[in-house]
Write a structure and sequence with these properties.
alpha+beta; 3-stranded antiparallel β-sheet; 192 residues; 5 helices; single chain
């Protein structure tokens, strides 16, 4: 909310434990760029490709999950004539769906020549920068429901862990995966 972020630097290891990372709290965008230049020796260049998540899919999923819990509670509150509880439950239901929508609206994958950047979150935004040449695998997953909506989930596997985003447009995601795989194959950088 105030423009601050926490920078986390992960050690190259196969597990995602927090013991192998260093946190730098209260970073502004300028500090993040300085850390990136220090660690990767190159700045983030112009965006080649940007994939935005579908915020309506995030909101729908939250709606479906919360409906299972909130509808019986609303029914029970109506049965015992606790109308203030009904208003509170409906308010919490709407706020939770709105927060899921805003999370999806502010989540994206940005790719340039050297990096894949995951930006996600709304109240507490998170930016994860991963060099393309260190990518071990790129995973695309979709269920039958996602296939019908032409959406898919993305996971990028590196030695420092797995990063991913959900509800990306499938055609754009296919282009991103192909581009990342091609750049990993053609890279002259040392992988380890």
């Amino acid at each position: 909310l105030l423009g601050f972020q926490t920078a986390q630097i992960f050690q190259a290891q196969s597990t995602d434990n927090k013991q192998g990372s260093v946190s730098v709290p209260a970073c502004k965008e300028v500090h993040r760029m300085m850390l990136q230049n220090l660690i990767f020796k190159q700045p983030l260049e112009t965006t080649q490709q940007e994939l935005k998540c579908n915020p309506y899919s995030h909101a729908k999923l939250r709606f479906y999950i919360l409906s299972v819990f909130f509808l019986p509670l609303v029914g029970a509150a109506f049965y015992v004539e606790e109308y203030a509880g009904i208003v509170l439950l409906i308010l919490l239901f709407c706020i939770s769906i709105f927060m899921a929508f805003m999370y999806g609206k502010n989540s994206r994958v940005i790719k340039d020549e050297d990096f894949v950047v995951f930006k996600k979150g709304w109240l507490f935004p998170q930016t994860v920068i991963s060099p393309i040449f260190k990518t071990q695998a790129v995973e695309k997953w979709r269920s039958i429901f996602l296939k019908r909506r032409k959406e898919a989930h993305l996971k990028l596997h590196t030695a420092a862990g797995t990063r991913g985003l959900r509800y990306l447009q499938e055609d754009q995601l296919n282009q991103l995966i192909t581009s990342v795989n091609n750049e990993v194959i053609c890279s002259e950088e040392k992988w380890m």
